[in-house]
Design goal:
Strands 1-3-2 form a 3-stranded mixed sheet, covered by helices on one side. The protein is built from 13 helices and 3 strands, in the order H-H-H-H-E-H-H-H-H-H-E-E-H-H-H-H. Helix 5 packs parallel to helix 11, helix 5 crosses helix 12 and helix 7 packs across helix 9. The N and C termini lie far apart (48 Å). It is 52% helix and 2% strand. The longest helix is centred in the N-terminal third of the chain and has 17 residues. 38% of the residues are buried. The protein is mainly α.
Length: 284
């Protein structure tokens, strides 16, 4: 029997290759969370694929990673925070179907021109798909699965629910997940009390949360924050109360650089760089 199978494979190499490819694609398709996505309408996830990845990465280095994650409903998140994140990450969030094809085209052109991954094109929904179910890998199979999950999210969930999930699960530092944990860690307050400047700073570091801290006056954070505020102003989305306009922002900590942006509770360090095109996990 085995001899006949080996002989058949030798005589039908192309068919064998196609069969193996089909089996592989079927196995990959079975890992797509078709039913779990629908549960997200009412279920708030307490653990994500990215959290598990970070825990495993720490374990491989002989370390223990403490996850900081506290859920906060969208209704308690200030409009300035929501607007800042949208203009920073996905300006057409409420109008596209999960994939911004214009941005995809622009990114491909720029990456070809610069011969490197200089610009990502992931929408908020795509980033959510990756954070919830996939990994930071950039292999083509992962991207295909990301697109499928993105379409499922857009089909089953409202835009506001997608945004609520996104703000509550994305990474904002080593072991820091979600806007509430980030706000408590970096600014010592609930996300419901964030100011416009703090909102812009948090939005500014989303593409590279393991390298940059929103509470540090680095060149990168200052540059990205200005971009976010400029976009908000251009869309007439800056609506501060008279009290907030008069109140000075608390002085930000100018901290020595150490390992990464995720040790806000454990050290006073930051490893901010000035590469404005870098990406850790939330972007591509």
């Amino acid at each position: 029997m085995i001899a006949r199978l080996v002989r058949w494979i030798r005589e039908h190499k192309v068919k064998t290759l196609l069969i193996l490819l089909g089996v592989f694609m079927l196995a990959e398709a079975l890992t797509i969370p078709f039913f779990d996505v629908a549960r997200l309408k009412t279920h708030n996830p307490t653990e994500t694929a990215l959290m598990r990845q970070r825990i495993h990465e720490a374990e491989s280095e002989g370390k223990v990673l403490r996850i900081r994650h506290t859920w906060i409903p969208l209704s308690r998140i200030p409009r300035s925070v929501i607007d800042a994140v949208i203009v920073a990450e996905d300006g057409t969030f409420y109008t596209h179907g999960g994939i911004d094809w214009f941005e995809v085209h622009e990114s491909i052109d720029r990456n070809i021109d610069e011969h490197r991954i200089a610009r990502g094109a992931s929408t908020i929904t795509q980033q959510l798909a990756k954070n919830l179910y996939l990994s930071t890998s950039k292999d083509p199979i992962r991207k295909v699965k990301e697109l499928i999950i993105t379409l499922l999210l857009e089909k089953d969930l409202s835009k506001n629910r997608i945004l609520e999930l996104y703000l509550n699960v994305i990474e904002w530092g080593r072991g820091i997940f979600g806007i509430e944990a980030a706000s408590q860690t970096y600014f010592g307050k609930s996300a419901s009390s964030l100011t416009l400047d703090e909102a812009a700073r948090l939005a500014a570091v989303i593409p590279s949360p393991l390298r940059h801290r929103p509470d540090v006056n680095s060149r990168y954070v200052a540059y990205r924050t200005r971009i976010v505020l400029t976009r908000l102003s251009a869309r007439n989305l800056i609506h501060q109360s008279p009290e907030e306009e008069k109140a000075p922002n608390p002085p930000l900590k100018l901290q020595p650089q150490t390992e990464d942006a995720g040790q806000a509770s454990d050290s006073a360090g930051s490893s901010d760089t000035t590469d404005f095109d870098e990406d850790d996990n939330n972007g591509l």
